[in-house]
Amino acid sequence: MRNGHLMLLPGLLMLLLLPLGAAAQKSSDSTRYCPANSAVFNDTSCRCSPGFNSSSGEIFYSGPERCEDINECAPPSLVSCGKFSNCQNTEGSYHCTCSPGYELASGARVFRDESENTCQDVDECSSGQPTCHKSTICINTVGSYKCRCLWGLEPKPGFQNNQPNTTCEEMSFPTWTPPPGINSQRLSRFFERVQDLRRDFKPALAQGTIQDLIQEVDELLETPGDLEALPCSEQHCVATNLLVGLEDVLRNLSQALPNGTLTFNESAGTDPAASSLFSESVDLPILNISYQ
Ligand SMILES: *[C@@H]1O[C@H](CO)[C@@H](O)[C@H](O)[C@H]1NC(C)=O
Ligand SMILES: *[C@@H]1O[C@H](CO)[C@@H](O)[C@H](O)[C@H]1NC(C)=O
Ligand SMILES: *[C@@H]1O[C@H](CO)[C@@H](O)[C@H](O)[C@H]1NC(C)=O
Ligand SMILES: *[C@@H]1O[C@H](CO)[C@@H](O)[C@H](O)[C@H]1NC(C)=O
Ligand SMILES: *[C@@H]1O[C@H](CO)[C@@H](O)[C@H](O)[C@H]1NC(C)=O
Ligand SMILES: *[C@@H]1O[C@H](CO)[C@@H](O)[C@H](O)[C@H]1NC(C)=O
Ligand SMILES: *[C@@H]1O[C@H](CO)[C@@H](O)[C@H](O)[C@H]1NC(C)=O
Fold first, then answer.
1. In what residue span(s) does the EGF-like domain sit (predicted)?
2. For 24-78, what is each residue's pLDDT tens digit?
């Protein structure tokens, strides 16, 4: 008996469920088909999900409509994330993030709008992350940071100062080669002195080296010796070499100076007009050396 009743159950359930199924079928027939990212609004219309819109508006009547993501960030935009931030559209929504080099006071990553904007500069130098190479000091800047060579160091070849990847090495006195093919004892003596200065160079003593060098050039121009006997073209060659060489060296050595602008006295000879070496007009480079 018990078993017989139980066996009837599935049949009964079938009978009970049939009308329900038919009703469900009927109901979905009477509502319209609503596309992705939308839901039934009423018997004849669909409504796009929040953050989506169709070409005929949020609520639309049947037809080949699609609900597309609204780019809340695109102008004309109702969303304002505030300063030092970016608006990021997402599927069906958006969020605000701080610009690179900035972060929210709370440390959170995203925020909703301007009223929640607490984007502030990240001090990369004290953040503890590996930042600047140890041959440099880290300088925080608004939105970023830079690395500057320690005193007496200069950027390694391929690197520049004040970059995030600056890497430095001991600074050296730049090479200054004599003009080729000039036969002058006076000039040879000058370059021997330059070699001495070069050999003895210490970044910490750059100021003194610079003064000595300028003095050597002064003396050479004041007492040109056998240079005066050179043909004009060779004199030009020497004069150009002196000015270009001096400028190069000063420019480099000035980087070893702690701060301020390198100023030096254009006494006597370095005033080009005062030397007979410059009696003919030469294209003189301007000695304009500064150090930030
Ligand atoms: C459904 O909503 C739309 C938009 O509000 C309206 O125009 C339409 O008459 C409504 N249809 C029904 C059957 O209520
Ligand atoms: C949705 O689209 C309609 C028709 O293009 C437009 O008038 C309406 O402003 C849009 N709504 C939003 C929130 O973008
Ligand atoms: C250092 O960074 C600059 C700028 O990002 C890049 O152009 C340069 O190639 C880098 N230098 C080296 C040696 O990696
Ligand atoms: C002078 O300094 C610059 C910048 O530090 C460097 O690139 C250049 O190689 C130096 N010149 C010489 C001759 O060392
Ligand atoms: C470098 O500059 C600072 C501040 O500008 C100043 O106090 C200091 O005396 C300067 N040092 C030298 C060696 O000029
Ligand atoms: C520059 O020369 C003038 C006049 O010869 C002198 O009074 C001044 O002290 C000199 N300045 C420096 C920095 O040597
Ligand atoms: C020196 O150089 C700087 C930067 O290159 C320039 O702005 C300035 O005008 C120059 N000064 C002179 C007197 O040429």
1. 69-108, 121-169
2. 333 444 345 899 999 999 988 999 999 999 999 999 987 788 999 999 999 887 7
Which residue shows structure tokens 């701060």? 259
Length of the chain: 292
Q: 147: helix, coil or strand?
A: strand
pLDDT in tens, 70-81: 999 998 877 899
Report d(CA 243, CA 245) in Å as an integer: 5
Q: Which helix (H) or strand (E) holds 154?
A: strand 153-155
Q: Which two tokens stand for residue 187?
A: 């000039």
Residue 166 phi/psi, 5-degree rounding, is: -55, 130
Query: Which bin fits 258, alpha (ψ -120 to 50), beta or left (φ > 0)?
Result: alpha
d(CA 200, CA 214): 16
Residue nearest to atom 6 of ligand 2 (CA): 57
Report the Cα 101 to chain-centroid distance in Å: 10
The structure's pTM equals: 0.48
- Name the residue with the closest Cα to ligand 1, atom 5: 59
Beta bridge partners of 86: 97
Is 18 exposed, middle or buried (CB count within 10 Å of its CB: 0-12, 13-18, 19+)? Answer: exposed
**Which protein residue has the closest C-alpha to ligand 2 atom 2?**
57
